[in-house]
Amino acid sequence: SEGVTVAELAEALDVPANDIIKRLFLLGSPLTMTQSMSNDLVELVADDLGRQIKIITPEEENSFTFYDDPEDLKPRPPVVTVMGHVDHGKTSLLDAIRHTGIAAHEAGGITQHIGASQVEINGRQITFVDTPGHEAFTAMRARGAKITDVVVLVVAADDGVMPQTVEAINHSKAAGVPIVVAVNKCDKPDANPDRVRQELVEYGVIPEEWGGSNMFVNVSAKTHQGIDDLLETILLQADVLELKANPDTFASGYIIEAKLDRGRGPVATVLVNRGTLHVGDALVAGTSFGRVRAMIDQHGEHKTAAVPSDAFEILGLDSVPTAGDEFRVFEDDRDAKKLADERALKARIEEQNKVKHVTLETLFSEM
Ligand code: GTP
Ligand code: MG
Prior knowledge:
By secondary structure, the protein is α+β, with helices and mostly antiparallel strands. Helix content is 33%, strand content 26%. The protein has helices spanning 6-13, 17-26, 39-48, 58-62, 90-98, 102-105, 135-142, 163-175, 193-201, 227-241, 333-355, 360-366, and strands spanning 4-5, 36-37, 74-75, 79-84, 115-121, 124-130, 150-156, 179-184, 215-218, 244-245, 252-261, 265-274, 277-278, 282-285, 288-296, 302-303, 305-306, 311-317, 326-330. Helix 1 crosses helix 2 (17-26) and helix 1 (6-13) runs antiparallel to helix 11. It is elongated, with a radius of gyration of 24 Å. It starts with a strand and ends with a helix. Residues 55-62 and 362-367 have low confidence and may be disordered. Magnesium ion binds at residues 90-91, 111.
């Protein structure tokens, strides 16, 4: 339950430690370099130095606001999230789209993390995000992450609407994201795609052919029936949205997933939603900082630049960020480092406040 030390605060604020010690003395709290300070004291001293440290919620802290001139906006590819009930075939459908075989290799056939991949259809790109269920998506949305433009709702034609189908609908509607329904497993003898349509009406997801606003496509991830139709439908839906972003500025976006790789260190999958990310850029994501050492696409190919809607793995961060963290590139790497340090400091203060509830009794009983 150690707090922030005088030395750490000095570093985070970029002032000599002696200045802080002096001020602490004048405030009636003489402390040395390695002693830790209370949250109130941190705020007081920072205030005294003309700097404001305020403990704010992660949601507030994680959102940057950017302004783009409409003239700078260029069309960008759609980012599509595949959602649906367990085992209804989300990963299989993505496999069919990518012509790969990820589902067959997954431990227990259950998606363990969020993966991102890009496919090209008739010269147009779509970025797909696979989800392990809805928790990660919910967490991201709760933190204000705007990661997806279109949701593909996968419903197995032999199973129909299930609890997680309804959850996915609720999440999509709350986020204001349009839903394209992929009625999957249509190859099965007991498949009943019309029943799926009827069931979904109850939840306000109504086929266009019935006067609603949702596009439906019957597919089979197994036989690849309807896959091309689904991709065209996604692009049609994306066209309606007129997706745009400014590519000619410093990059920002979201961390889709992150892990510690034994050989490569922290590895993060980033989704760019504004600007262009280059190798060598100084980047902050949550409390992580680093210069982009390498960028790698889903085929393992190295890239030098990532434009809006690109999702690549990046190497070079000093720690593992959290999925849903917003990332941002800084012109000056010192600014990036400072922001990461200040966030780490705030995180420590928050952590400390959570842990430490010292009363006179507990203080004496610990002695
Ligand atoms: P979670 O990641 O666990 O939520 O599952 P998922 O939705 O990604 O489902 P997954 O792709 O792992 O498929 C679940 C099972 O359904 C697997 O055994 C697939 O082979 C099977 N399956 C998926 N799509 C089809 C299909 O179109 N037809 C048939 N017959 N089986 C399918
Ligand atoms: Mg899956």
